[in-house]
From TrEMBL:
<dbReference type="Pfam" id="PF01607">
    <property type="entry name" value="CBM_14"/>
</dbReference>
<keyword id="KW-0325">Glycoprotein</keyword>
<protein>
    <submittedName>
        <fullName>Peritrophin-44</fullName>
    </submittedName>
</protein>
<keyword id="KW-0732">Signal</keyword>
<feature type="domain" description="Chitin-binding type-2">
    <location>
        <begin position="214"/>
        <end position="276"/>
    </location>
</feature>
<dbReference type="GO" id="GO:0005576">
    <property type="term" value="C:extracellular region"/>
</dbReference>
<dbReference type="InterPro" id="IPR051940">
    <property type="entry name" value="Chitin_bind-dev_reg"/>
</dbReference>
<feature type="signal peptide">
    <location>
        <begin position="1"/>
        <end position="30"/>
    </location>
</feature>
<feature type="domain" description="Chitin-binding type-2">
    <location>
        <begin position="279"/>
        <end position="337"/>
    </location>
</feature>
<keyword id="KW-0147">Chitin-binding</keyword>
<dbReference type="InterPro" id="IPR002557">
    <property type="entry name" value="Chitin-bd_dom"/>
</dbReference>
<dbReference type="GO" id="GO:0008061">
    <property type="term" value="F:chitin binding"/>
</dbReference>
<feature type="domain" description="Chitin-binding type-2">
    <location>
        <begin position="151"/>
        <end position="204"/>
    </location>
</feature>
<feature type="domain" description="Chitin-binding type-2">
    <location>
        <begin position="94"/>
        <end position="150"/>
    </location>
</feature>
<keyword id="KW-1015">Disulfide bond</keyword>
<keyword id="KW-0677">Repeat</keyword>
<feature type="domain" description="Chitin-binding type-2">
    <location>
        <begin position="35"/>
        <end position="91"/>
    </location>
</feature>
Amino acid sequence: MKGLLATINMAKMLLTLFGLLILHQDVVEATYTMNETCAYYTGYIANPTNCKGWGACEDGVLKATGNCSDGYLYDSKKGICNYASKVQCATSAQNICENSDDNTLVAQPSDCTQYCYCKNKTIMGCTKCPNNQLFNPSSGTCVNTYTCPADSICRLIPNNKFAGSETCGNYLRCLDGSGTEGSCSTGFFNALTGKCQSTNPCSTVNTNTLAPDTSICSGYTETSGPQYFADDSTCYGYYTCESTTGTGIWRSCPYTLNFDGTISTCVQANQVKCLKNRCANINLTFVTDPSSSCKKYYYCSDGQQSSTSTSCPTNAPYFDEVLQACVPTVPSYPICS
Ligand SMILES: *[C@@H]1O[C@H](CO)[C@@H](O)[C@H](O)[C@H]1NC(C)=O
Ligand SMILES: *[C@@H]1O[C@H](CO)[C@@H](O)[C@H](O)[C@H]1NC(C)=O
Ligand SMILES: *[C@@H]1O[C@H](CO)[C@@H](O)[C@H](O)[C@H]1NC(C)=O
Ligand SMILES: *[C@@H]1O[C@H](CO)[C@@H](O)[C@H](O)[C@H]1NC(C)=O
């Protein structure tokens, strides 16, 4: 099965082989919500939970949502409500099946290694492509190379529109749900205006240094040598004290590490249940919400975590910060306990 069979033949063949398709949903990728997409784009976007739905992004947040009228679906590639027969919906597989003919194979929009089989407007089952291949919904086959839109900012954005990149100051040119990164010929891309400008619109991440603290060292209990105290505003900073009457000097843990006050050491971020902004000193797109027993995750933009955290889906209820994905079993990191 090299991915060259026609859609319907492949579905029939799988049905004959296994009697029923296997429901196989190991890992569901964390994907951008509408609100998260709005941090990078101004204009209309698709609603990932509803084939008719659209959202309007302005000033970095979702300002309005709506549905296309009956007979129309939101065409995420064109950015308009279009005749249902002309739209390949980019939302959940169930949503796609509701708008697909019998015996079609459709992509599992949140996981490019999976595809689902539709009949009678319902998902009959989902399965994984063999040999780590990816499902290309245009050809309806499993292929070796395919740019997966599931984890792209462009997933909900129309074709040939420009969105901000995670590398702040660069842009993504969106096409079929995936982006090609580029930079302005002069200046920096501003995601909220969609234009290049001469000044860098990106807030500087983690270059802040906290002022010396004159009271924190009263907690010093050593007989000699330095003692370290967590600061109360970051997950990654701490004060160094040399005596009870000294002044605490602020320092940052190395990039990607957080400070564990209980052992006075910088450790991997997933070892510390820090309830402050966890996006600041780390190179991750999504971080665990430590108050959720690893059932929710935040999204990071410019070193800031989103104002609210998002739940993992019920079939993969735990967020794995290292895999950057929702998984079926609780990860063993201390942050999950
Ligand atoms: C989007 O984000 C804004 C600002 O963070 C918040 O007020 C609003 O409730 C969010 N909307 C949704 C649908 O999550
Ligand atoms: C759009 O339709 C969905 C599904 O029918 C519904 O849940 C949602 O409330 C509608 N949204 C608006 C803005 O009408
Ligand atoms: C198709 O789905 C409808 C509504 O759920 C159901 O009434 C009908 O029996 C189904 N038909 C077949 C052939 O499964
Ligand atoms: C983030 O991590 C990835 C993979 O570990 C690495 O390739 C990339 O250069 C890192 N980016 C920064 C800004 O450190």
